[in-house]
Amino acid sequence: MMVPMDTAAPPGPARPEPLLAELRAPRTWRTAVYLLLALPAGLFAFGILAGGVIGGVLTLPLLVGAAVLLGCLWLVGAIGELHRVLAGLLGIHFARPLPPVSGGLLTWLRTTLADPVTYRTLLFVLVQPPLAVLCWVALGTLLSVMVLSLASPLWLLNPEAWPVVWGERTVTPSVEAVLGLLLLGVGSVIVLGGVIDLFGRLWTRLSVALLARDPGAEAARREVVALRRAAGRVALGDDLHATLLDLTAQARAASTADAVILLAPDGTLLAGSGPWPDVRAGMPERLPGHGAADVRRTPDGTLLATLPVTLPVSAGGPDGGVLRARYAPGVRPGSDELAFLLSISDHAGTALHAAHLIERAGARAGELERARLARELHDSVAQALYGITLGAKTARATLESDPARTRQSLEYTIRLAEGGVSEMKALLFSLRPDALEEGGLVAALRQHAHALETRHGLSVHANLRAEPPLSPDAQAAAYRVAQEAMHNVVKHARATQVWLDVQVVALPAGGEHVVLSVRDDGRGFDPGGPVAGTLGQRGMRERAAGVGGTLDVRSAPGQGTTVTLSVPVAPAGGSA
Length: 576
Fold this sequence. Notes:
Blueprint: E1 5-7, H1 21-24, H2 26-58, H3 64-86, H4 105-114, H5 116-150, H6 152-157, E2 164-166, E3 169-171, H7 175-211, H8 217-236, H9 240-253, E4 259-263, E5 269-273, E6 293-297, E7 303-308, E8 322-327, H10 335-397, H11 403-431, H12 433-456, E9 459-463, H13 472-493, E10 497-506, E11 512-520, H14 537-546, E12 550-555, E13 561-568
Parallel strand pairs: 1-6, 9-10
Antiparallel strand pairs: 2-3, 4-5, 4-8, 6-7, 7-8, 10-11, 11-13, 12-13
Helix pairs in contact: 2-3, 2-5, 2-7, 3-5, 5-7, 8-9, 8-10, 9-10, 10-11, 11-12, 12-13, 13-14
């Protein structure tokens, strides 16, 4: 997969760096420490490997040499890890190694000999000592010139203490010569920072080229794992901020970037992994298009990659912002890594779009729930309050003239008030899922049955027994199915009696099911006829299937209707 890259200079004119800025930069001093340690570390690694190989070859007839040579092969990997640690002084952070191969000594030997990293590490061990000597000689010469030049005033003050002999004659210092030497010393100080930085870039490129682990298999493995976890996280969609944080962490862990951040279209930081002082620094004036990446270098040598976060086509809205990755000096992402980051940005766009859809769905569900609540209140509580008002007025009007009618009106008013209270409790159970969890399925069904009796005058025979062992989801599904079935009794059946039953039944094949049934003595219907859909069977069947249960509806004209729900009991410890 080829990824087009737009390489451009940072926006705006580059500001000149202050004098001796390189010498004052911490990175220069870390590079100097690396150059100081490179020679002894290189000589130590070369010496121990060379000694081990020579000793192993000489003792090979004694069977000891084979163990020594195997130890040297193991040392190659250990020395490579040592040099990777030292490369951290240059700002290089290598990817984590693959887990060790299991399968015994022969498997390890075959894997190590087939790994290109082994031979690149050996090449680094061979190249490092002479290159380190070259750096020491160059820096030593420059430091000597700098020290002698800056000490030239001492020569002018006391020529006898610092005699300089050229051939057979002694050189006498002059003011002009000393001034020239001072200028040379100051120039050496200025050049010293640039030389150290140049050597640092040289060692950075050499370390990345020879010490980096296999850029093919391991990088692909890390990227596949990161994309798989990112896809799972986006599919879960439980927390947008946590999802975006995990995406940036996966992008940083599976790439060579030092930091990865996600910015909203207005530049607001959405999530990030790794330090990034100024999230807007180096931002291109024109953002890259879909499938492209803008990679540009900053004055301090850092690379900044900017990639678009594209929302799905179905979103039809503005872009989702940008994903930015920052790389240490000397590290440049390849096209495969940019393609991986583009995939991460696409996952971020999907997560943003999914969060927007969930928000819209929640708002729509709230509107539908408010409309349903308004209908329920109008059909139940409002009607009950209206009847209570009429009953109270009738009682007041007949209080002195007709006490018997007054008593009858008051009893009617009390029944309406009790029905209104029961209906309100039923509404609270339907609106608050935690009420079902706290009270249980049996309490919720009993409350709903009482409301059905007081409001509609039905005779409800409830045989509910003990609380069945159901999971919270199964409880909610059973309650909704019973609620819908009893609503259909009121709306369609023209029944006078309803039988509500809940029991635990052992199956012949093993296991137990909770069986809930709602039966009425109404007019019934033809299950195969065109009016079957009016009972809302589809919704009840979907609820039953969602918790692993089944729904059975039996009816015939003039013989009533029976709705039976069968749900598996919750596993041990899983019941509500």
